[in-house]
Structures are given as C-alpha cells and as structure tokens.
Amino acid sequence: MASLGPSIDELISALRCLPGVGPKSAQRMTFHLLERNREGGAHLAKALMDALDNVQHCRRCRILCESDICIRCQDERRQQDQLCIVEMPSDVLAIEQATHYKGQYFVLSGHLSPLDGIGPEALGIPRLIEWLDEKTILEVILATNPTVEGEATAHYISELARERQIKVTRLAHGIPLGGELEFIDSGTLSHAFSGRESI
Amino acid sequence: MASLGPSIDELISALRCLPGVGPKSAQRMTFHLLERNREGGAHLAKALMDALDNVQHCRRCRILCESDICIRCQDERRQQDQLCIVEMPSDVLAIEQATHYKGQYFVLSGHLSPLDGIGPEALGIPRLIEWLDEKTILEVILATNPTVEGEATAHYISELARERQIKVTRLAHGIPLGGELEFIDSGTLSHAFSGRESI
C-alpha cells in the first residue's frame, strides 16, 4: 500500500494493538487524530503513559489500582469472610453496580487456557491459595464467565476451596430477565429447566 | 459508575477521542492495554507523540507528510498540469493504488460545511487559488465524495477554475462494477441511466 511516511505508518501499526481495531480503522483513527484532533491525541499519549506508570495490580486482590492495596481491600467495613472470584477488573465494577455484595474480590485476569500457556501461576492461584489458607474465608463465590474456559477455571478453584472445607457457590444460571423462552438458546433453557425452583 | 482510579478513568476518557470508540470499547481497550499488552501501550504512546511531532501538512498540496514538501510534490516526473482535488489524505492513497494518475493533488482535509464553521479558509482554498493563478494547471479533477457536502464543495471549486478558463472534470458516477441493478439505490441508477454512453 502507498505510504505517507514512517511516523504515520508507525502510528497506524501501533493503533492495531487495541482490541477490535483492524488496518482500516487504524488508518481512519490516525488521519482523524492528525487532521482533526491533535489535542486529543496529545492527551491520549499522556493519559496512556500516566496509566502505564501509575497503575499496578492490588497486592491483595489483583485488581488494577493506583496504590499497593486497592480501596476495596483497605475498606475494613466490607465483609472479610466472603470472596468473589472474577475473570476481569470490569467484572468487579459490574457486580458492584448491580448487587449489594460487600465482600472481598479476587481478580484472575483471565481464565485457565493451557493451549495459550495460561496456567494457575498466570492467574495468581498461588496468591489465592495463601488467602484461602489464612482461614478467614467462609464462602467462595465463583463468578467466572459461563464459557467453557470460565467453567473449567471455576471447577479448578472449587476443588481448591473444597480441600480446605470452604463453602463454594456459583452464580445462578437460567433465563435472563426480560428474555423470551422462544429465543433463548437450548443450553440455557435446559439448564433453567433442570434447575427449577419451588415457589 | 464505580471507578478503579483517576489514571484509569482518564485513559478511558482519553481513548474516546478515537473515532468509533464509545464508553464500553474505551473501557475494554483500557483493560486490555493495562492487563495484557503494556508493551503495545507504551509503543502506542511513543508512536502517537512521534507522529504529532513529525507530521505536518505539505506546504504545496496539504497532504500529511513528514517534510516541508511531500514526495509526490517533489517528484518532477509527475505531470504538472493536472490537479486532482480530494477531501482526505486517504483518498490520495486510494487513487494512487487504483489508477495510473500521475498528476498533482490538493487535499482539502474536509468539505465545506458552514454550519460547523468550515469555510473556504479551513479547506486551504486561498492556497488553491494561488496555485490556479500560477497558470500551470490545465485540468482540475474534482474527486470529492459524492455526498451533498462533497458536491457543494466540488461546485464551489469548479466555479473558481472556470473563472480562470481551466478545464474541470468530475469523477464519473454510475453503477459500481459487480453491482446488481436490483440492489442499487435509485439515485445512482437514475444517474447512471441519464448518463448512459454509446458503445
């Protein structure tokens, strides 16, 4: 493809590290930043460097945060005996927004995926085992995604908790609110049917 | 919404200056960069700053380039008497790739849009008039987009060229190659019908 110069090509290729950005979008973003919004571009470069410098993982729950220990882990009013295990930092935000849960979190930053070389070490499982061994946790809530990898990861962690006689729960599967039976996938429907509750 | 910290929030909001990136994508990009691809993020910040420092507009044709005058304007083997007028730098690349055109370009960086405060000045029209007054140009090729604004801009420039007795041409409208009549919009079809050519 014809080129406009090395710095422009470099920016187009660097933008492709963003998820969901292909060559056409990267080119469009580059022209937009250079033609129309240089201020926004400079602000983005600065915000990116600041975040890379300041943001680390909480030493306790592994969420992204800007101090050694995140605000939720520092908050002593939160329940200390419940531990909710999620895949991503955004899952913590979603649960905080949607529920009244006031316990602890542990962020795996992914799920077990041996083919990609992601094993227990990469998910911080050794740190999780230490925590479970402290004997402060009475309930482990598994909130990994309902995908094959998420289920496998949940199963793996549930074994760790059971070995230590800790109660393990999993988010309920079933029909989403506002869903219509006709349009729900058969896996979900079968799950909801066999897991029916008496009212 | 719950927050993970000021640097993270700042990065999420800064990413929204990219075209097509809303709050959800910006959040996903932020977590991806900070969790999975810090190297890519650092590279992006550097590429962005380099491009903002090095890239400017060619003084002659206003395309984005890294020197005072772009390579196409420096190339004396290109025809000096044809001038193709486009809206965006990417249009130059598209024409270079698809055609054998070897003349000059002029990049407007947009189209006339009085409501957004984009008038002739912002499109470099004074510079274009200087160029037309040099009397080196024998044909102006209008290659603005076939939108209402693009057509209005083309009309405006065609008047400038006609006043100076310069031949003006416009890219042909019609049925795109591989198109099926049934699925072509009525505006294009009516244009193609009334502009039919004898073979």
Description:
A four-stranded parallel beta sheet of chain A has the order 4-3-5-6. A two-stranded antiparallel sheet of chain A has the order 1-2. Chain A folds into two domains: 6-52, Helicase, Ruva Protein, domain 3 (Orthogonal Bundle), CATH 1.10.8.420; 78-170, Dna Topoisomerase Vi A Subunit, Chain: A, domain 2 (3-Layer(aba) Sandwich), CATH 3.40.1360. Chain A has eight helices and six strands, in the order αααββαβαβαβαβα. With 199 residues, the first copy, chain A, is an alpha/beta fold. Helix content of chain A is 44%, strand content 11%. The mean pLDDT of chain A is 90. In chain A, α1 crosses α2 (23-35). The longest helix of chain A is centred in the first third of the chain and has 17 residues, at 38-54.
Set out the fold topology:
The structure is a homodimer of 199-residue chains.
Chain A: H1 6-15, H2 23-35, H3 38-54, E1 56-57, E2 64-65, H4 71-74, E3 82-86, H5 89-98, E4 104-107, H6 125-133, E5 139-142, H7 148-163, E6 167-170, H8 186-194
Parallel strand pairs in A: 3-4, 3-5, 5-6
Antiparallel strand pairs in A: 1-2
Helix pairs in contact in A: 1-2
